[in-house]
Design goal:
CATH class of one domain: Mainly Beta
Number of helices: 1
Strand content: 25-35%
Shape: elongated
CATH topology of one domain: Immunoglobulin-like
CATH architecture of one domain: Sandwich
Largest sheet: 6 strands, mixed
Order of helices and strands: HEEEEEEEEEEE
CATH superfamily of one domain: Immunoglobulins
Radius of gyration: 25 Å
Number of strands: 11
Helix content: under 10%
Length: 173
């Protein structure tokens, strides 16, 4: 019976212990300490960013190997559209881009597209539409980030060309 009471207490009080406030204390020498003990009555607890976790891939273990290392494929992110060195014709200078990944992207991850080095607003999608891109050569890359800005994966930079379709000279096939 004592074991059941102890187990019930652990179940009830464990979430309270795990949800304790964390305080940041900086001393006169600039040394930083983090603690769960409130340093003063007016101390405010830190606001911690949301934890962002990617699901891991399970890899079968070969019992014939004596090492614990496994070959887990790293997260890859690449453009499926447009392609590197692609000429874009007749779109009214708008462009839709699409990314692909080798694993499922967590719903809290953000994608930041960079057009000619300029970051666009983060989106929670592997697609993005640019309304107006001037004619000429442009570079494009993207990063998959956590809500706190940590980069989880990045594409290679690609180059594409916005062209105006000519009625006299149609684009080559």
């Amino acid at each position: 019976m004592k074991i059941w009471v102890l187990a019930a207490c652990l179940i009830v009080f464990t979430p309270l212990v795990l949800a304790q406030a964390i305080y940041k204390v900086v001393d006169e020498n600039g040394n930083v300490t983090y603690t769960d003990q409130q340093p003063s009555d007016d101390a405010e607890p830190m606001v911690l960013p949301e934890l962002n976790v990617l699901d891991g891939q399970s890899v079968p273990v070969d019992p014939s190997t004596d090492t614990e290392e496994t070959d887990v494929e790293p997260l890859r992110l690449s453009f499926s559209s447009p392609q590197d060195e692609e000429n874009i014709f007749g779109t009214g200078n708008s462009l839709s881009v699409a990314l692909e990944s080798n694993i499922e992207i967590p719903p809290t991850a953000l994608v930041v597209f960079y057009l000619d080095g300029q970051a666009q607003d983060p989106v929670q999608s592997l697609t993005y539409s640019f309304d107006f891109i001037p004619r000429g050569e442009h570079s494009l890359r993207a990063e998959l980030q956590t809500a706190s800005g940590r980069v989880l994966a990045a594409t290679e930079s690609i180059t594409f060309f916005m062209r105006q379709a000519s009625r006299l000279n149609p684009p080559p096939p």
